[in-house]
Design the sequence.
């Protein structure tokens, strides 16, 4: 059964992110939730928040084992404001990993579907081949946001190192790379759900390359979690460093690769997404 978030002090207001992740169980494997205005995007809710919701629904399953290691979300249709249902089904449970299928339903139709892999992490040989990013720290950078019309972005404090959202007169850029520091504006600590959300913080790369705001939206987003719960808790809500870059723009689609690092140079997650755009 999907469980609602519990253990809170009734005298302490919920954090907007935790409020948005609240799910009420209705029957085994099914729960209801409701969109929150604080996480609104141009059309429907912020995709990172939807990804976090689907992950949280699977995390709340009583027979779930291990921690998230991979999440793929397919945004099949816009999620409308209001109530929705999330259905979770375990596909297979192995000794060290478990596979889940999640679906977000509204008005009798699937609006988003996802798969998640959970794993039992073990002490093994470890190495990170990807070199940590060498960039200025967040403390000396100006705090900037995205567009005022992007409501969900107000939940984060962002400081761009490069590739800030272009001005109206910016013109095309030869690079699609954005590097930024980000953290929850109210200092909420990190967990896998919030890491899933922040992995989608980057605006569409086509904006930067074309120097213009074009209709664009994520179709599919896969996030790989390299940090466990203890690693994330140790961050204490500090800034994380993100970098995103596109690989190819072609015939109305492009793919984007991103990394999320801790201030100390630990690779927390990598993600890949497919985005459509109109030119």
Sequence:
């Amino acid at each position: 059964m999907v469980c609602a978030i519990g253990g809170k002090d009734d005298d302490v207001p919920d954090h907007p992110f935790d409020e948005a992740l609240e799910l009420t169980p209705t029957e085994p494997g099914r729960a209801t939730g409701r969109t929150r205005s604080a996480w609104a995007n141009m059309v429907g809710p912020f995709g990172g928040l939807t990804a976090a919701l689907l992950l949280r629904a699977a995390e709340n399953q009583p027979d779930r084992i291990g921690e998230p290691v991979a999440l793929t979300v397919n945004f099949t249709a816009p999620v409308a404001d209001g109530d929705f249902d999330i259905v979770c089904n375990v596909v297979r449970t192995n000794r060290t990993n478990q596979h889940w299928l999640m679906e977000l339903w509204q008005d009798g139709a699937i609006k988003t579907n996802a798969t998640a892999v959970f794993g039992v992490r073990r002490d093994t040989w470890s190495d990170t081949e990807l070199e940590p990013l060498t960039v200025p720290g967040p403390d000396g950078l100006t705090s900037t946001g995205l567009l005022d019309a992007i409501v969900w972005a107000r939940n984060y404090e962002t400081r761009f190192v490069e590739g800030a959202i272009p001005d109206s007169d910016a013109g095309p850029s030869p690079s699609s790379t954005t590097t930024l520091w980000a953290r929850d504006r109210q200092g909420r600590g990190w967990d896998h759900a919030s890491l899933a959300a922040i992995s989608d913080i980057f605006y569409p790369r086509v904006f930067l390359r074309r120097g213009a705001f074009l209709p664009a939206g994520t179709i599919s987003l896969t996030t790989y979690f390299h940090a466990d719960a203890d690693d994330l808790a140790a961050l204490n809500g500090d800034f994380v460093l993100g970098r995103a870059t596109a690989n190819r723009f072609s015939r109305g689609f492009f793919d984007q690769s991103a990394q999320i690092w801790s201030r100390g140079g630990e690779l927390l997650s990598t993600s890949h997404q497919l985005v459509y755009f109109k030119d």
